[in-house]
Structure formats: structure tokens, C-alpha cells
Specification:
homohexamer, 301 residues, alpha/beta, serine acetyltransferase, domain 1, 2 domains, 6-stranded mixed beta sheet, 5-stranded parallel beta sheet, 11 helices, disordered N terminus
Amino acid sequence: MPVQDATRPTPQTTMSSSPSPPTTANGGITITGGENEDEWVWNQIKAEARRDAESEPALASYLYSTIISHSSLTRSLSFHLGNKLCSSTLLSTLLYDLFMNTFSSDKSLLSATVADLRAARARDPACISFAHCLLNYKGFLAIQAHRVAHKLWALNRKPIALALHSRVSDVFSVDIHPAARVGKGILLDHATGVVIGETAVVGNNVSILHHVTLGGTGKVGGDRHPKIGDGVLIGAGATVLGNVKIGEGAKIGAGSLVMIDVPPWTTAVGNPARLIGGKEKRKDEDVPGETMDHTSFIYVI
Amino acid sequence: MPVQDATRPTPQTTMSSSPSPPTTANGGITITGGENEDEWVWNQIKAEARRDAESEPALASYLYSTIISHSSLTRSLSFHLGNKLCSSTLLSTLLYDLFMNTFSSDKSLLSATVADLRAARARDPACISFAHCLLNYKGFLAIQAHRVAHKLWALNRKPIALALHSRVSDVFSVDIHPAARVGKGILLDHATGVVIGETAVVGNNVSILHHVTLGGTGKVGGDRHPKIGDGVLIGAGATVLGNVKIGEGAKIGAGSLVMIDVPPWTTAVGNPARLIGGKEKRKDEDVPGETMDHTSFIYVI
Amino acid sequence: MPVQDATRPTPQTTMSSSPSPPTTANGGITITGGENEDEWVWNQIKAEARRDAESEPALASYLYSTIISHSSLTRSLSFHLGNKLCSSTLLSTLLYDLFMNTFSSDKSLLSATVADLRAARARDPACISFAHCLLNYKGFLAIQAHRVAHKLWALNRKPIALALHSRVSDVFSVDIHPAARVGKGILLDHATGVVIGETAVVGNNVSILHHVTLGGTGKVGGDRHPKIGDGVLIGAGATVLGNVKIGEGAKIGAGSLVMIDVPPWTTAVGNPARLIGGKEKRKDEDVPGETMDHTSFIYVI
Amino acid sequence: MPVQDATRPTPQTTMSSSPSPPTTANGGITITGGENEDEWVWNQIKAEARRDAESEPALASYLYSTIISHSSLTRSLSFHLGNKLCSSTLLSTLLYDLFMNTFSSDKSLLSATVADLRAARARDPACISFAHCLLNYKGFLAIQAHRVAHKLWALNRKPIALALHSRVSDVFSVDIHPAARVGKGILLDHATGVVIGETAVVGNNVSILHHVTLGGTGKVGGDRHPKIGDGVLIGAGATVLGNVKIGEGAKIGAGSLVMIDVPPWTTAVGNPARLIGGKEKRKDEDVPGETMDHTSFIYVI
Amino acid sequence: MPVQDATRPTPQTTMSSSPSPPTTANGGITITGGENEDEWVWNQIKAEARRDAESEPALASYLYSTIISHSSLTRSLSFHLGNKLCSSTLLSTLLYDLFMNTFSSDKSLLSATVADLRAARARDPACISFAHCLLNYKGFLAIQAHRVAHKLWALNRKPIALALHSRVSDVFSVDIHPAARVGKGILLDHATGVVIGETAVVGNNVSILHHVTLGGTGKVGGDRHPKIGDGVLIGAGATVLGNVKIGEGAKIGAGSLVMIDVPPWTTAVGNPARLIGGKEKRKDEDVPGETMDHTSFIYVI
Amino acid sequence: MPVQDATRPTPQTTMSSSPSPPTTANGGITITGGENEDEWVWNQIKAEARRDAESEPALASYLYSTIISHSSLTRSLSFHLGNKLCSSTLLSTLLYDLFMNTFSSDKSLLSATVADLRAARARDPACISFAHCLLNYKGFLAIQAHRVAHKLWALNRKPIALALHSRVSDVFSVDIHPAARVGKGILLDHATGVVIGETAVVGNNVSILHHVTLGGTGKVGGDRHPKIGDGVLIGAGATVLGNVKIGEGAKIGAGSLVMIDVPPWTTAVGNPARLIGGKEKRKDEDVPGETMDHTSFIYVI
């Protein structure tokens, strides 16, 4: 489970020997980005993969085929997802094409990918490199595949969006309905068992641990799933049900069952969940979705 | 998560323009069926798949190979499961044969399959067609494979039943012991992480969400797992342990821990679970396993 | 869910017609072992597989390729894991080599494997043979792969350790960070959704059910995950967060959220968890990790 | 290259300890057969495979999956061909089904298969068992697949017949047009590079070595390929072009180019071919297609 | 073996109900072409595939994945070749990319492909549709892969050109060195065993049967392989060795060994080959490479 | 087709900047060798592969997995053959093991491999590097697999030797009976269609082109195939039948049919073959199997 290690320099600092693009201050929930930054991250990934290939020849073949041989992050990611999600009846070439075409049709998908890579790198102390995340984080890969499925859904290509959805659920045990709207800078940590329903909305800079459910409560069709604000942190095994609103900067404790609105900058814990804290961001307060601070759960128990 | 949308007509009504077989009223926990109805559902599936293949050429190959090219639902399902569950050491041809032979040996398996398809279609608003369920619902596919494993177990072909069990657990993250007895008209929604133990019994028209455990409590061998009555609804992440009896029409709240009997038409919520409501069906009461109504959990909190 | 069935003889007794090696009394948390015993278990496995191949020709090919054709347990396990964990970009031959070389480099890995096989056989009434565990238990297989990943991590071969970690998470939905230290005689029962963090430590003779998290609480880098003592039992869906100490012989109830130390021979239940019982082993007390007794959870509720 | 070893007893004699069905004398070009004999050959094959599996554990998995686990020769052959000829776009399950259904629809296919097995066993000293031929002889396998393709062609299912034709040409380098008519008791020895055109006809008990072409001469559509009589032997690399008639019991020398009719019991050698010998069977003459005697080619040079 | 059937209308005529592009007279060795024609052929292919999918559901999946689902002939061919030539160490996605990029970089490749398709359709009576050739003719597929390998060779990307060369030789048994220059409108009929050396040149409208060698004679490095003029026909099993010149419109008899120049409009037959006929095209003479007339070989014997 | 280019320096000279082991003069049919030389060739291969990986990133994955990641030529070759020859029923891990174990059991196998690599490099001007041969030459790979099959045959492991034989014939279209004895320093150039019978013997430093048959003449069992002396060259499409002796340094013309003994240093050409030249090596005569000089065939015609 991730943590912002105070003694660990931010990526920008750590890698300052590499040509880093000018970035604005990374405070609040702002997402820095742009094509320069995307390029910089891709260059980092290739450099990391080359270093790893050098040190571990047994893995070099894998690193070349998935990363180093590719001319862009889009191509590398499409290749990797195509090979991860293919089956005997859904060929890798078909999926590769689908990913390439969809990523190429909307540049915002790539910048969301880069924001997610930065999120994993910044929030999860176990994430030792961008390449590590790109290759190995099933939460990261599931979200990228979801964004493509969501795009296809929006184009009314529902059957293929659902086929992709199904493959992601089989391969990664992550079940995000293609209609769900998911922001940028998302960390799905560990990710196994995450379920996000059809009308759910997830804001930017949200961190969600494994076994989290954003589900419905039945009976009412239409808009029936949770709306998660920016910067929210949802602990492992939490279940949020119904068309409830989890406000910006809120924190949902591990194992909680939440069926009510949670105001901004508020913590919900327990089964059923009780609320702690308040609707406004304190001056010095950190964004839970970014700091991944689960410790406050203790205090409230 | 599913819901019986009041504004959504039942399948029978929706598709009344198609040649629908005569059906009896679908009240209570009764399951309508018969060969005519099985045939009708298979025809629906093929029509849906043809329509989808037309609208999405990229998926047509998949739809033809898994559905349209097959002469029966048994064949289509056996093909699909064989290709989903095969591995480099358990070939698809072997599994295909195993499924074909087992389904052919007992006609009741197919009618259970059809009842499950109807359950998904009727209870889950996210299920947009029978074909969608057949192709993509890992809960549905896991149950069909389980029924075959259960049949093999009953014939004392334990090693192959357990091999199948293991493949289903690997591929779908659904772990149903081959000895467990499971009824008809079951919806395993989302399904990831469901665990059902060796001596568990699940009635008809039951709906079970993801991460649900029907487990043992150790110490006592033999009959040591829950018995789930007809029409029960079990919410996401609920854990039911021991040889307890969950009565007909009961409801188990999401995230609950249940280690006691739950009387019929009663709701259990919380960790540990408390009981609400009563042992007899109220005149106007709906069957929880069919309505998928999770909202009452809120009232009891 | 497993149980030590009082009426079921221990493996040693059951199979006393087979040439069983001299074993010391299996009391307390002691692990008997040695090369003789490893050999004895391997011989049992082959005998079981031959018997199953005889009775079930359709499975014989699988049993020969994974077990009977191999000259040692190391080879059989390396073959099986290589074929289970391979992908189109990480070939089975590469993984087979990696497993073979690592197991050969450290004999203690094999004796840990054997201890795990004995644990499953002794503690889980659903485990009908050693071969059953070797072939089908994803928790067992995930731990064996983890031990190899851990060895590679210790040799600073981090990228390949993480690639292995990722494959185990994809295929088995079991997520154990390669740096985590795990003892011998471990049973991961059902195993889906288990998450064990980077700095976690798991003692010997521990039993962990599915959906269990040994996670961090964020904010603090470095040593931030739970330390699980010998003989501990952790129930399904329990979440243990932070650098807390779960003492020897403790029991964590299903669905519990534990963010505090749990003294030895103590039970923690609920969300948040309360403690029951005491720090010293009563004279007649069984080891929870071995008896798998979940029933006491009921009494404390 | 095969030979009828005078010192080698015929299969019937060799295996007389096995329950052999009553057979008529095997003189001339007569083919003995019938269901009893088919069953006897299948039992031989299973016995051979079991013996080999016993002596070579590394191969046991292969032998079980392709032979021992199957209930009939049809099933075994369909499985083997399905797995040999499948590709990423033509799945083994589809091909298995196609073979099973076609073989089942016409019992004469199986008796032709058995006649081919007997031919290989009787004529090729390098053929050490029926199982050896069934598993390893690409000429044998190519003919069996051709017979299925031919059947499909006759049913006007041309596209799938041609797809099968193409797979056989890719995998075995044997190119027999689906429309070509091929008799029983055929030996395609070594088989690489054999080409048999659309309107060619091959009689019974014919032996054809590798690199043999039965081709057209262009210019004239319709019936444009050779007609090969019963009992003919065609040496390696021989090229027979045009709608010519190769009479019963004729012999075509290795490397010959034949563009003229060859009368019965006559030998053709050279490029272009000259004829030797005469149109009637001498009293003591053996059938070339059965004796595989290439030596007479020498005398005529 | 192919033939220009006098009674069979040319494709243009046959399919005149389809919208056919304006074409110039198809006399002599002229190749008609242009983007319109390429498009027309692609439309024909799709129409043929759709018709076949309709009539043969078992093949529909294959036809959709290889042809109907693609937006262009380039894409369809790249997909088909990628899946045919891939191996466990050279992934289909890599090859697909390589084919797509190379075809896109040089439009002349596609028009050569179309010329080859027309050649097969016009010259081989066994070729029943363009789709039949595209899907099933290994000679056609080998040449298309060769053109890509040749392009890569010309760009000094020799290792990957040779890897492609090797895969084509493994899969199709057609061995064309990437440096060899091959024209348009080529028919490699049956194709198994064709070998074309490094410095060989093959003109336009050439037809080459199976087992044909265009080889070197050793001793002299550099330019050491045959130069084949436009419109040449080379019969099955012919061997042409050394830097010899086979003139325009020449004919090489089946099974011939040619180590000398063959003047234009001349026939070479026998081992060693003798020459017949003369250096100038007779007024009414057909182009051998187009008419596929092998009959004249007979007259010269 | 190969040639000893006079202007091309021998490998020893070309690569003299690399640390080359001391070698004796390479005159006559002597094969230099020894462990030092084997090591030197392996180092060359790795250097070539690294250079190619650098220049062609798309191929780097392939080069790392097949060559660069391996610690020895034995391992690299076993991996490459295992992946080339595997099928859905004969897994790559099984074959890899079989190759590794057999190569390790007899060091002479590796030195024969190295001699073959040197033969290809020295005799075939199209062979641009040792790595090129190791990766892409199906004749080279077929011989290496044959040597393993031959070893298994000698150990009376006939069923697995024949299974390997069959795979080589399927994948490479090279059919060498496992019992055939083949020397060192062999070049099978192009290799498609080569057939070598059960009792054939091939000496050292022999070069054999594609479509060559060393077959039997039937009728006589036992020792019935050709014996090929050291340094022999056999041209493309030549057919040698019966237990005939082809003397040291002999040359068999392309397309010849040989059914008689050919004395040493003699050339046989034609169908049927005539002999030219004499039984003793002329003082200045080169070894045909090494020079690959096919030109003399011309003079004798």
C-alpha cells in the first residue's frame, strides 16, 4: 500500500539529471501535463527499460518487445495491452489495432495515461519506476483499457466495449463498466476485485485500493452509482453503494460500507460508515488521494 | 450492480415482436422453462449476435466463432468455455469434448443455463442482451462450468472435476467447490472473488454479488457450509460462515459477516450481522433475489 | 474453508501403508522435514497422480506432463508454474529455467514447498491429496512463485522479481510483493484477492483465507506493513493495516479491520477490531493457524 | 523408403497373440476390412501407445492426449488433426468438430483410414507400429484430412474445403486439391512436396513417394490431371502431367517425367519417360504399389 | 496446375455485373493497374468473403477476422501474414506492424499484390476467387512477405529481412532470398519447395511451378543466380543454376536442368536441357507465363 | 546456393580482431575444433546478435530471447529448437528439457554443432554471420534436432526419437530418420524436401542441397540406403537410391538419379546418372563438399 515517503524526493527532483520539462508547482489537485511532459515520461520509461535490460538479460527480450522497440508510449501500451488481453478468440492483432486507433483518435487519452503513471510513481512507494508501473500494475493497465472501452461505448460501439470490459475483468479481476466516467491521475493500487458500476463517476487524482466497490442499490434504474470527487482516497475493501456523492478530498476507510453522501474533506469509516471531520479543506491539509494517508482511520476508531 | 428497472419492460414484453413461446406468469420463485423456451432464448442470442456482428465488423469474427456458427446453445457454450478455460496443459479440444458430453448427458443442465441467462437479463440493468451475458459474464460462465464439474464429481470423477474447478478459479476468480449444490436462475453479479464451499447449497433464483463467501468455520468436518434458500439476495463482500441456514427470501447486506441462521424474508446486516424483519413473506413483498433491492440496507443502518 | 476434521486421520496415518519416513511428533508449531520427508511426499504425489491417471484417462495427459513424467518435485513444480505463469511475452521456457535455477540454488525452497503441501493436506478437509494441492491450489502455487521472486529480489534482480509478481497477480489474483518475507507451512486457502505488502513478514504455520490484506497505512515509508507471528489464523476478508504486530497463535476474525497490535494467543474481531483472550497459550490450546478454527469468532460477537 | 521385408512377418502374423479378427487372404489388390478389423487396429494402436507411454514417461502426456484418452479412432484422429492443423485464426475446436462430424457422417472414411494404416505398416519397414503412423506420418495425416476436405467439396462446401487444403499444404507440405479422388490403402511415403491436382484420380493400394506431382499441362480446362490405377508405385520426384492414364500395377521411376499413358504392369523411367514391360500381369508378378520395389528401375537404365 | 481455360471468361467479363473499373486491353505482358483497380479487386475480395461467410457459418469467423473486418487490402494482408508467420518468439503484433508500416511506405507494393492476385485468378483454373488466393495460396503469400523482406533488405535492415525469410521458409516451404528481385503479376503455383537465390531476378508476368530452383553454381561469388525475363513459364521441378539468362517468353520444361542461357520465346527441356524454338515471338504466340501451356513439352520429347 | 568466394576472407581472418583461438590449417577434410573454438564461436554469435539488436530494435526481443540471454550455445540452441518444434501437444518446456539433457550428456554433439556453423559460414556466401545460421537455417536446425533424435534412438528411446523426427519433418520439411548416421561439418543448404533414410550414412564435411533424397529401393530390408563419403557434394534435387556407396570427394549433379556406386573424386550427372572423372584426388583438387562448386556439372553435359 502506497505512501508519500517524506525522505523520498519527488520524481522531478530525483531525476533532475535527466532533461526534465519545466513543470508548475504540483500543489493541490492540479495536474501538470502537456506533450512535452508526456514525451519526458516516455523517455524516462525507455531509459529505465534499457537499464533493466542491461542488468537482467533474461528479461531483456520482454523489455524490448514491450517497451524499447516501440516508437511511442501509445504503441508500447497498445502492444502490451493487446498481448495481455488477447485470447484464442480475440486475437492480439485485433486488440492492438483497436488500442492504436482509439488512442490515436483522442490525444487526451495519452495524457490521462501519463497522469496515471505519475500518480503511481508519486503515491506508491513500492513503485520503483515508470516502467514498473507500465509493465506490471494491473490497476494501471485496467484503467487504460477502460478508457478505450469508454471511448468505444461513447461511439455507441457497445458490443466491442463490453467484450473489452469482459477481458479486463477476466485478466485483471478489475471490473469497470465501459460507461463509467473516470478522471486522470488515478491510482488503482493492487486493484484485484475493484468493481465500478455503469453510472459511476470518478474524479481526478483519486486513489482507490483493491476490493473497492462503487455499486448500485438496485430497484432504481438509470443513474444509480456513486460519484467520487477529486482527490478522494478509498481504502481497501470499502463498499460504496448507490447514487451517493463522495465530496472532494474525502477519505473512505478500509472495509467501510458507505450508502450515504460524504461531504468534502470528510472521512467515512465503519460498517455502516460514520462521518468524521468537515466539509472544507484546512489550510494545511493534504489531498488524501495524493498522500494515501490511511493513518487517520486509526484515530477515528 | 443490478436493478429491476420499473420502466424497463420484462424481456418477454420487450421482445414480444419475436416469436415468444407461451409462458406462465413469472410470479414468486417459479421458474418457467421447457424446451420451447430454451430454443427461443437460443434464437434470441443468435439474432442479437448477428445484429452485433453487422454493426461491429471487428467483433464479427468473435461472434461467429462463439455463437453464430453453432447449431445449439450447448455447442456454443461448450466452445466458449473450452476456449476460455483451456491452458497449455489442458487443451481446448479436451475441454470442449468434456463440456459437450456432460451437457448432452443431462438435459437439465441446459435448462439451468437458460434460467441463469434469463436471471441476468431480468435482474441486471447493465445486461443489454442474452448474448452479452453468454459471452461476457464471468459469473454466468463460472456457474455453467461448475455445473459440469458438479456432474463429474457426482460421477466420482473427482480429479477432473477439481481440475475444472481450478481453471475456473484461475480464469474467473470464482471458486465454487465441485461438490457444492447450486440451483437454477442464479445471478453471480460481477462475480470476482466469490467463494462457495464444498457442502454449501444454493437454492433457486438466488442473486449473489462479488466477493461473497459461503465458507466453513473449521473444526467440524462434514457438512460445514451455509445453506442458502430460494430467492435470497447476498450483497457485495458479505461473508457467511458455517452450516447456517439463510431462509427463503432473506437478504444479506453488503459487507456483512453472518455466522447465524437468518430466518426467511429477513434481512441481516453488519459485522457481526443483526437481523431485521420477519419470517413470513408479506403479501406484497418482492423476492430479494429477483428484485436485487439493496436499498433496504440503508433503512436498517 | 478448511477444518481439522477430528475423525479424519492425519496424512501420516492414512497413508501408513505407503513407506512413510520416520517423523517426529507434529505438536506445537514445529515443522518436521528433511530430505527423506521431501522424497516421501514426492513419491506420494506421483502415486496419487498415477492412480488418478488410471481412473481418468481424459486427465492422464495433464497428469503425465505436470507430474508423472518428472524426475523430481522441483522439476514438476517448475514445469507447472512455467506453464501457468507464461504469457505471449514471457515464454514458458524462460520461466521454467528461472524456476529450475532458483529452486536448485537454495534447497530450503523445496522444504518450504513440502511444508506448504503438508499444511494444505492437514488443514483443509477439501484437499483430497498432495497432488490436488500441487496442481490446483492457486494459493499454494502463488506462494511457491513468490519464494522464487523473493529470492531474486534478495539478489537485487528486482525487475524480474516484479515481472514474476505481476504474473502471479494476473493469473492467481494473489498479490505478494517480492520483498515480503513468508515462512513455511503456509496455507493460503482459496487465495483470491490476497494482498501482502512490501515490508510484511509472515511467520511459519500461518493460515490465511482469501481477500486478506496485509497492507500499509501510507504516509510513512520504510517498514510499514504487518508482522504476522507463527501459527496465526486470518479469516476471510480481514484487513490488517500498518506496521502492527500480530502475535504468535493469534486469530483475526473474518471481515475484521485491524490497525493495532494483537497480542499472542488473542482473537481480534470486528471493524474496527476488538481484542479477546490473552497473551499466553493455554495448556490445551490448539494453534489457530493449524486447526483453522473459525468458530470462536461467533462466541466473541 | 519402404520395403516389404521378406523376413518380417506380416502384421497379422506378428501380432497373432493379440485377438486378431478373421481375415481373408491378402493377395492381389484386395482390401480386407470391415468393422471388426477397424476395431482390431484401434485396439492395437492403443496397446502400442500404452506400451510406449510406459517406456517413455516424457512422451506419455502426448500419447494419452492423442490416443489413449480417446474412445475411438475417429475421435483420436480428429483430435490429432485438429491440433496439428489449427492456427490462430482456425481454432482447434472448430477443426475437431469438423473432423468429428465428417467422419461420423460417412463410415467409409474410417475404413479408408484403417486401410492406409495397414498399408504403411505392411509396406514401409521404417514403420514400427500403427501408432507410429497415426502420430507421425505426415503423408498419412494429409490424406485423412484430404478425405474430409473432399467430402466437404462434394457437399459444395468449397470455401471450407479449400481452407483445409491450405492448412494441409502449410503444415505438411502436401498439396492435394479437395476435388481430387483418392482411393484406399494409400501410402504417401515421406510425403513432402507431393502435389495432386483438381481432376486427378488415385486408385486403391497406390504408393507415392515424396516430391511427386500429378499435375496438369495447362491450356485445357476441365479434366486435366492424371488418372492413377490400382496398385501403382510412383518413385520419388516423379512428375506426371496431363490427363494421362497410368494403368493398374504400373511403376513410375524416381525422377521421371511422364506426359503419356503408361499401360498396366508397365514401368516408365527417365526424363522424358520411356516404357518397359507389358500390359498384363505376369502370373508371379507382385503389385508394385504393395511391394514398393524400386530396384527394377536399375535394370532398365 | 493452372490453365487459361478458353471457355472461362476473364474475371473482368465474369464479374461485369459488379462495378468494374475501366481497364486497358490486357494483351502482351502489360500490367493494368492503378488505384481504382486495386480498390475494385479489394471490393471483389470482400464481396466474395461475405458470400462465403453467408454460405459457410463455420468459416465466417475466419473470413471476418482475415478479410471482412478490415478497411483495406493492406490491413487484411498484414493481419493474415502476421498471424501465418508469427511464432512464439516473433509475435503476430510485431509482424503485423512490420507489414503495415512497410506496405504503407511504398504504394507500389500493393499494386504488385493486386497484379499477383489477378495473375492467380487468370492463370489458375483451380483459383475460384480472389479471396481464395489471398487466404490460401502459399505461393502468393510467400511473395508478398518476400516483397516486404526485400524492402527491408534494401534499407539495410538485413537481420529482420532474414528473420522474415526464415519464417516464410518454415511456414510455406518457399525460400526466396530477401535480396532477390521479383516483378509483378507473379504466380507461384503450389509453391512448395521453390528456392530463389540472392542475386536472382524474376521479371513480370512470370509463372513458376513448385519445386523450382533458381540457384547458384558455387565457386563464383557476387552475381551468381539466374535472370528470368518477362512472361517466362517454369515447369514443376525445374532447376536453373548459375547466372544464366532466361529470355522473355521462354518456357522451361518440368524437371529440366538448365545451366545455359535460354533465348527469348524458346523452350528448354530435359536433364540436361535442350533448346527448341526461337528467339522471336511469333505473331500469334501467347505468353507462356500467362497461358501456363505445358503441353508443348510433350511435342519436343 | 553457396559458394566459396575467393575474395572473401575466411572467418578466422575476417574476425581476427576478436580473440580467436589457435587453429590448425583448415586443409583437406580435417575439422578443427575443441572447446576453445566452441567458446570462440559462441562469443562471435553473441557479439553478432548484440550488434543486430542494437541496429534493429524490432528484432532485439527475438535476439535476446534466443541468443543474448543465454549462458551457453547449448542453452540457446535448446531454447530455439524447443520453441521452433513445439506444438500444442508437445510443449516447448518438454522439448527444451529433452534438448538440454541430451546435449549435456554428450559433449561431441556441441562440437558437431559448431562444425556445422563453421561449414555454413565458410561455404555459403549468403550466410552473413554465425547468428544468421543459428537462427534462420532450417537445414542447420534440422540436423541439430536430428543428432538429438539419433542419440535417443541409440538409447532405444524410439517413440520419442520418432516424435522429434516427425516435428522436424512438419516444421522444416526435412525428413532424416533418427537411425541415420550423420557426420560433422554438414551443410544442408535451403534444405526443404531433403529425405535421408533409416540406414543411410553421411560422412564429414558433406554439403547437400535441397530436395535431395538418400532413399531405399524397396524389396530388401535391413541396410538399404546410401553411404555418403567425406567431402561429398550433392546438388539440388538429386535422388540417390539403394545401398550404394558415394565415395569420398564425389560430386552428384543437380537433378541426377543415382542407383549405382560412385567412386571417390568422381562426378555423377544425369537421369540415370553417368560417371565422369576418377577415383583418386588430383593434387590440386578441392573438396567438393567444401567448395560447393557446381560448375563442373556444365562441362560434363
